[in-house]
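Exercise 7b. Backbone tokens:
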């Protein structure tokens, strides 16, 4: 009898064959392609480098050669994921009146999910997730959005009570057409404190699951010194092979074993911010070896922090959890929904998707 994972992969191929996977060029989900030239790039996890070729349905998307990435490009993407984990933020230009101006450019580009799989992503500043925007209460901000996509888009500031005309929905502003620019301008208020994210609000089912989102952290005026380590994981979903369901899952844009590992020292107090940017799927995240405290939900501090070892986040939800790193070792931080821990066409690794490691030394 075939193993269950082989039966699952065979069923996927049968469905693809019967359906023909024919969709419009610019409204079909990202398509995975073989990227064997990137299979031997350096990363922090060791695994076999032999990846079998994967059949690719003809959906009218760019061919695999146009999505090919060099090892150096893949390593640069891995570094981007690691920078996001450590909350390295986009640097603003400070205007003469003190306004902080950020620039986001929406475009299409290849993005490497895991060994053997590269997708045609839509995202901001050539990365998926887009860059972290970090601001403080009282800041006046301008966010200049250039649209270099083949379709219209907007940017919605999820959880932020911005002025209506800055809300980033097609009902509050004309969509930003290809080649056009729109400037979002507002003042950061105390209501906006906490962990949030921004995302497209045009054709969300396609654009959000293609990478059109990014994290946003609003800090108080005074620096919070409660925690020794601040870290960030953005959970997201992709639709591979023209499927309607979200079937590939990433943390900071990478699937295990490509997900960035968090290194902390014994005794450090850690705040881990978690954002579920998936368009449809909920995720139940569990940290092995620890009981953490849930200290904020959707940017709002919890009056009485709740001790837990799992937390479930629906689409668009965020949470801050905290723990003291007093148990040394390598600990899994992963989703407890089993098919979110698999890469659907990966014959190399038993685990994939929403799995990362926390190393406590």
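Sequence design result:
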């Amino acid at each position: 009898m075939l193993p269950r994972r082989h039966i699952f992969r065979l069923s996927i191929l049968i469905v693809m064959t019967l359906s023909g996977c024919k969709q419009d060029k610019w409204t079909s989900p990202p398509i995975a392609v073989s990227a064997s030239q990137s299979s031997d790039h350096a990363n922090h996890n060791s695994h076999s480098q032999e990846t079998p070729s994967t059949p690719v349905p003809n959906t009218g998307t760019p061919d695999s050669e146009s999505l090919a990435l060099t090892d150096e490009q893949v390593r640069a993407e891995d570094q981007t994921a690691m920078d996001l984990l450590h909350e390295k933020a986009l640097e603003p230009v400070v205007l003469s009146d003190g306004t902080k101006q950020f620039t986001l450019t929406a475009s299409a580009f290849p993005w490497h999910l895991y060994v053997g799989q590269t997708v045609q992503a839509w995202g901001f500043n050539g990365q998926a997730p887009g860059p972290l925007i970090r601001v403080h209460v009282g800041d006046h901000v301008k966010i200049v959005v250039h649209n270099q996509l083949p379709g219209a888009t907007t940017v919605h500031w999820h959880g932020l009570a911005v002025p209506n005309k800055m809300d980033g929905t097609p009902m509050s502003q004309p969509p930003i057409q290809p080649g056009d620019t729109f400037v979002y301008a507002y003042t950061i208020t105390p209501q906006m404190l906490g962990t949030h994210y921004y995302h497209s609000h045009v054709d969300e089912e396609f654009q959000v699951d293609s990478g059109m989102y990014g994290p946003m952290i609003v800090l108080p005026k005074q620096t919070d010194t409660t925690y020794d380590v601040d870290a960030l994981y953005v959970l997201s979903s992709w639709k591979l092979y023209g499927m309607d369901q979200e079937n590939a899952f990433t943390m900071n844009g990478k699937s295990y074993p490509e997900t960035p590992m968090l290194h902390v020292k014994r005794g450090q107090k850690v705040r881990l911010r978690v954002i579920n940017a998936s368009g449809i799927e909920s995720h139940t995240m569990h940290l092995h070896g620890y009981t953490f405290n849930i200290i904020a939900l959707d940017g709002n501090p919890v009056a009485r922090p709740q001790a837990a070892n799992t937390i479930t986040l629906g689409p668009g939800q965020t949470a801050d959890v905290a723990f003291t790193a007093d148990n040394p070792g390598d600990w899994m931080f992963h989703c407890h929904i089993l098919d979110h821990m698999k890469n659907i066409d990966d014959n190399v690794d038993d685990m994939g998707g929403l799995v990362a490691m926390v190393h406590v030394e």
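Instructor comment: Helices lie at 4-19, 71-85, 204-207. The radius of gyration is 20 Å.
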